[in-house]
Amino acid sequence: MQKDQSAAAALKQPGFVRREWALPINVATAVLFLIFSGSWLADLSNRGWFAFILIWLFAAILISAFAVVRHAEELAHALGEPLGTLILTLAVTGIEVTMIAAVMYTSGGGSSMARDAMFAVVMIVLNGMVGMSLLLGGMRHREQTYNLQGANAFLAVIIPLSVLGLILPNYTVTTPGPSLSSMQSIFLIVMSIGLYGVFLAIQNLRHREYFIAPQASSDTNESSHAGEGGPSIPFHATMLVIYLLPLVLLCKKLAIPIDHGIRVLHAPPALGGFLVAVLILSPESLSAVRAAMGNQLQRSVNVLLGSVLATISLTIPAILIIGFINHQQVILGLDASDTILLVLTLGLSMLTFASVKTNVLLGAVHLLMFLAYLMLIFER
Known about the structure:
This protein is mainly α. The protein is built from 14 helices and 2 strands. The longest helix has 33 residues, at 47-79. The N and C termini lie far apart (60 Å). The model is unreliable at 217-229 (pLDDT under 50).
């Protein structure tokens, strides 16, 4: 009862409208597209109209995603590590899975979108955002420390699932093309969910200390109460859900202009997956970079590696199940150049997180790998 009263009090605070200015944009855009999308999206041949619709939807989803991450961060501060960061990564992964599923439903033949989006997440996070965090953090603090056991736990699950989900389908012979048979798909679904479940038990129950910076473990209780005195945990949880619900509709509508633009402009198919990943990862990535620059590298590592792990572990089962429901062949296997990039990225990540201290050199190497990924999107 007291919690409900604190949530209601938060709604009446003078700063509520100023803080939640994105909410009316989110809801109004969702309602308008729910009513008029049939006519608005029926003909996108006019370039001006196409650009207007794409920018409108892109901006509305991006603003809402920032709001979701803001409330997830408040929950993270209130609940402490690692549970708070888990909520943040699951919220972002939920948006990502929704967008990928929407694109798969919209473009019947575009079943490689899920693979492209997952690969884009791995490249953006493990190379672009890890590189940016280590580079900027190293420039400001020279060397930064984190809990090596936690990073190794993330990589121990990321590496096998990435290889089994994105490389192995190229070498199976039961089905033609870079896809899996029904039995192989069911096994991968069970394995992905099972490994992620075991990881969550390790992260939040048996070995929580792996995901807390050693030198900051004594300060954990203090930081976990940083949100006291402001809006309550139920308030932030409610607002997070309120922002997420319209995003489900907006993501489905955005899939139509993205698919149209790639088809008409003859853009590389991988560009669609990259745009989806950038849109969803922007708020979370900003949070990770801010944490690294504030000398909270452990939080940055938890956010970034947790994002990759949640994406691989949850997106693969989701898109395979959607493939079963739609009787769609889901393309998972990467081509030769992307496979080399993925293997190189995983190996480089193992070297980066093999020591408890990081510096600017490691960040620079990861950023160069990210630039190589961008170049190969347009020039194979």
